[in-house]
Amino acid sequence: MNQMPRRAMIRRSGAVAGAATLAATGLASPATAATETDGPQFLPLPDHAKPLPVPAEGYRLEPVGDNGYAVSAGSAQGYFFVTRTGVVMLDAPTAVSNYLPLAVKRITDKPVTHMILTHDHNDHISGAAKFPDARFVSHKMTAELLRVYTDPDRPVPDITFAGTHHTLRVGGERFDLIYPGANHEHGNIIVYLPRQKIAMMADVVAPGWAPFLHYGNADHIPGILKAIDAVLDLDFEIFLGAHTYRIGDRHDVEMGRAFFVDQWNWTRQAMREVRFDPSVAEAGNLWAAQSVWFNRVADQVSARLIDRYGKDLAAVDAFAHDNVKAVLISLGTDDPNIPADALA
Ligand SMILES: [Zn+2]
Asked: Which pLDDT tens digit goes with each residue over 153-203?
């Protein structure tokens, strides 16, 4: 491999384009962003977003409300609630799938009678088959997707609902299942426990963190804002986001909304301001010219996002550049006519 100055390597790597914008924002001091260590440098994690201590068992078990528990390992969380008649689990993420049966046993001898599957994604429900006696509950779209996959780790639910609302009552606890329309994934639902003011939704807001790459392979990026607003319409105090290290609250969801709206509006604005120049590539190679334009838009918007949110949300610089391009494509294809103030 040719020797290349490290700064030049950073500039040439699209994966760290966000890091390259740090210096321009003033957030990256030479001590944090330009030290001569191996690999790209990123912003430090805010204290509230850092990993929490993990006991010797290999996972964290924390109470949620008066009969619920969060089981965390890595950056994933699963949840269960102990009712009068049995345990209701919300998802069975891959990272905690071996721990969930142990965690339930530490708390109760009652069987897991129901598992609500928030959506079909493998990383959230690949542990479902470890509970073969449970009844699985999801939106109809989730069941349809799971029927296509024929994955033995992800059973097809036997209790499904179409439309926007369904209420599941188990052993004195009420679970409202709310579908706000296509969002991170078709069929991805909010689970709301009104008695305890707990709202859970996977992969839409990660408490304390900026959005994951391409909003986690999002099906419909504008629908993410609709989903966030559907959560904020609820009377809740505890927010469970299924990822990162801690339990969230209303402020986390409001921050997620603010970030989304700024990213959307600033991308829309930059698309108007940054000039598209076909002369940067061979005549007729519009994809190459568009690639240059996309990157210029992303450079501008990701620098603004890092400047505004880099101290409050974790890892804004990791995926901002990629996610601005995802929003740009969404603006160009899903709904180019959404006015900025309709989302603000
Ligand atoms: Zn997902």
From this structure: 999 999 999 999 999 999 999 999 999 999 999 999 999 999 999 999 999
Residues contacting 285, CB < 8 A, separation 6+: none
Q: What is the pLDDT of residues 127-138, one digit of tens each?
A: 999 999 999 999
Cα(184) to ligand 1 centroid in Å equals 6
Q: What percent of the chain has pLDDT over 70?
A: 86
Q: Quick one: CATH architecture of 51-246?
A: 4-Layer Sandwich (3.60)
Looking at the chain, the whole-number percentage of residues with pLDDT higher than 90 is: 84
Ligand 1 centroid distance, CA of 120 (Å): 7
Query: Ligand 1: distance of its center to the CA of 186 in Å?
Result: 10
* C-beta separation of 52 from 60 below 8 A: yes
Close Cβ partners of 340 (under 8 Å, ≥ 6 residues apart): 264, 265, 268, 269
Residues of the chain with CATH 3.60.15.10: 51-246
Q: How far is the CA of 93 from the centre of ligand 1 (A)?
A: 10
Distance 299 CA to ligand 1 centre (A): 27
Asked whether the CA dihedral 122, 127, 131, 137 is positive or negative, the reply is negative
Query: pLDDT confidence of 13, banded at 50, 70, 90?
Result: very low
Identity at 27, one-letter amino acid code = L
Contact 86, 112 (CB under 8 A): yes
CB of 91 closer than 8 Å to CB of 118: yes
Q: What residues does the ion ligand 1 have nearby, CB within 5 Å?
A: 121, 203, 216
